[in-house]
Design goal:
With 347 residues, this protein is α+β, with helices and mostly antiparallel strands. It has helices at 3-57, 62-78, 93-104, 118-130, 141-148, 263-266, 269-272, and strands at residues 164-168, 173-178, 181-187, 195-198, 201-205, 211-214, 222-224, 229-235, 242-245, 259-261, 278-282. The radius of gyration is 46 Å and the shape is globular.
Length: 347
C-alpha cells in the first residue's frame, strides 16, 4: 500500500475514535447532569409534599369544628332532655305500662291504650292520695318508686260486711269490697263544707254525712235534680246523698254532699253494688262508723237531691249501651273558692 494511502486510513480511524470518545463523554456528562438534577429536585419535592399536602389532611381545625359547632348543637336541639315524668297528654308504651300497673293495684285508669287521658289522671291522683303524696297527677321518680313498692290499702272497717263501700273523707278515696276482696279504689270528691243557697234558703251546708248506711234508690243515666244533673246515682241516705258520676272530680272536697266519682267508673259502678249493701263514710282510718241500718227495701221515689255536676246539658245517654256512660264532654275547669253566702258554682 502506498504510504500516502496508509496515512489517510490512519487519520480516518483516528477521527472515528475521537468522535466516539466525544460521544461517550457527552453521554456520560448528560447522565451525570441528569442524576445531579434528580438529586437536587428530590429534596425539594419531599418538603413540598409534607408542608402543603400532608398537614392539611391531618390538620386539627376540622375535628373541633365537627364536635363543637355541628354535632353538639344538633343533638341539643333535636333530642331534648327527657325529664322522666309522665303527665296528661303523653303517649307510648311507658304510659301503657303505667296503666297496667295502676289496674294491678285496683285503680281504674281505663283501657291500657298508652294514652294519658282523664281516666289515667284520676287513677294517678287516687294512687298519690293513697301514698300520702300531693295529687298533682304527674308520675315522676317518687311516684314511680311508690308504684314499685305500693302502700298496703288497709280497710277502714276491718270487721265491716264482706261486700261494702268505704268512703274516706280525709283522703278523698272510695274503696269497693266484694266478698271480702278489694275490688276498686277510686279518687272522689265529697261535700265541700260550704253553705249554699237552694229552695229559697241559703243555710244549706255541703256536708257528706259520716256513719254507716245502706244503698237504697238508684237511677240509670242522667238524672235531673234541683240544681243540676247526676250520672247513674246510687243513693244511700233519705236526704238524697248518692255516689254518682260527675264531669268534674276535683282533688279536694267540692260537692254539695254527694260522693263524685269519675265518669268512666260511674258507667259500671251500679253493677258493683246492690240495694242493701253497706256504705261506710268515715273521716279517716281509725274512725268508728257505727252499724248499718236494717236491710229495708226503700219505699217511694228517690229524694230530690242537691246537684254535683255542671249545669251544662250533657250528651244524651239514649244512644249508648245500658250501663255505659254517654260520650264525655270537654272537661270543665275546677271551681274557684267561693264565699259561704253565695251559691256554689257547679264544677
Amino acid at each position: 500500500m502506498r504510504p500516502s494511502r496508509r496515512r489517510m486510513l490512519h487519520r480516518l480511524r483516528t477521527s472515528r475514535w475521537a468522535a466516539g470518545a466525544v460521544l461517550v463523554a457527552v453521554v456520560a456528562v448528560s447522565g451525570a447532569a441528569y442524576g445531579l438534577t434528580a438529586a437536587v429536585r428530590s429534596p425539594a419535592a419531599a418538603p413540598t409534599t409534607t408542608s402543603t399536602t400532608a398537614p392539611p389532611a391531618t390538620t386539627t381545625t376540622a375535628a373541633p369544628s365537627s364536635t363543637t359547632t355541628t354535632t353538639e348543637p344538633t343533638t341539643t336541639t333535636a333530642v331534648p332532655a327527657d325529664d322522666g315524668v309522665l303527665d296528661r297528654g303523653d303517649e307510648g308504651e311507658a304510659v301503657a305500662a303505667l296503666q297496667r300497673r295502676l289496674a294491678e293495684l285496683h285503680f281504674d285508669p281505663g283501657p291500657a291504650d298508652g294514652v294519658f287521658g282523664m281516666g289515667t289522671l284520676y287513677a294517678v291522683q287516687g294512687f298519690q292520695k293513697l301514698a300520702g303524696m300531693a295529687p298533682d297527677g304527674r308520675v315522676g321518680p317518687a311516684v314511680q318508686a311508690a308504684l314499685a313498692a305500693p302502700p298496703f290499702p288497709a280497710p277502714l272497717v276491718p270487721d265491716g260486711e264482706p261486700t261494702r263501700i268505704e268512703v274516706d273523707l280525709a283522703r278523698q278515696l272510695l274503696f269497693a269490697y266484694q266478698d271480702g276482696n278489694l275490688r276498686l279504689i277510686t279518687h272522689v270528691s265529697t261535700g265541700s263544707g260550704e253553705t249554699y243557697c237552694a229552695g229559697g234558703s241559703c243555710r244549706n251546708r255541703a256536708i257528706t254525712p259520716e256513719g254507716a248506711f245502706r244503698f237504697m234508690w238508684r237511677y240509670s243515666g242522667w238524672r235531673q235534680s234541683r240544681l243540676g244533673k247526676l250520672y247513674n246515682p246510687v243513693y244511700f241516705t233519705g236526704s238524697g246523698v248518692a255516689v254518682h258520676g260527675a264531669l268534674s272530680v276535683p282533688t279536694y272536697p267540692a260537692s254539695h254532699g254527694c260522693v263524685r266519682i269519675p265518669m268512666h267508673i260511674a258507667g259500671y259502678f251500679p253493677s258493683l253494688v246492690r240495694t242493701g249493701d253497706a256504705v261506710y263514710v268515715l273521716s279517716g282510718p281509725g274512725a268508728t262508723p257505727g252499724t248499718p241500718p236494717a236491710r229495708n227495701e226503700p219505699t217511694g221515689p228517690a229524694p230530690e237531691d242537691p246537684p254535683t255536676t255542671p249545669e251544662d246539658e250533657p250528651a244524651s245517654p239514649t244512644t249508648t249501651a245500658p250501663g255505659e256512660p254517654p260520650s264525655e264532654p270537654e272537661e270543665p275547669e275546677e271551681p274557684e273558692e267561693t264565699t259561704s253566702t253565695t251559691v256554689l258554682p257547679l264544677p
